[in-house]
Amino acid sequence: MTPTIRVYATAEQAQAAMAELVGEGFAEDSIRVLKAMPGQESDLVAASAHEGFLDETQTRSWVKNLQDGNAIVAVKAPLYKGQLAEDVLDGHSPLSADVPESGRSGGAPMSDWLGMPAVINRPSKTRLIGSIHNQSFGINLLSSNPAPLSSLFGMKLLANPRSNTTLSRDPAPLSSKLGMPLLKS
Question: Which of 25, 26, 68, 119 could form a disulfide with 21 if both were Cys (CB 3.0 to 4.6 A apart)?
Answer without folding.
Answer: 26
